[in-house]
Design a protein that fits this description.
Blueprint: H1 3-22, H2 24-40, H3 51-69, H4 89-99, H5 102-113, H6 118-125, H7 129-148
Length: 149
Amino acid sequence: MSDDRIYRSLAGDLVRYATALAGPNEAADIVSTVVTKALARRGGLSGIRDARPYLMRAVLNEVRSRHRARVRRPLVPLSEGRDPAVRDDLDLTLELVGILPPRQRAAAFLVYWHGCTASQAAELMGCRPATVRRYLHLARNKLEDIIDD
């Protein structure tokens, strides 16, 4: 399969995944960075044995890299630019999930929003299913603590 066909078949999933992990403002940039790096490799996208898990892991790694680079900078709230009087459950959920570290965010997105099993999420994240379950456990505990406060 050609690089173009591989990209077209995976672009939507990659952008949705990057959006869930880093927000809509950075998603396209993250995906383009990941795909550009993959294309620069010898063989391009078609030279990768299983492109989907490879690129999903690369998106997660790029998000983690960017997260590390800006740890000390304050994040812009997801609700910025919207009417502050209008705050729905989705806004609150996105804001709370945005607090989670990238790996916990990735696990939550893949399992709860994308409908993956722990095994499928583990394959895409490049870890074991038990690790995904642990990330989900940590994420739920952190969100429960925040909500209780």
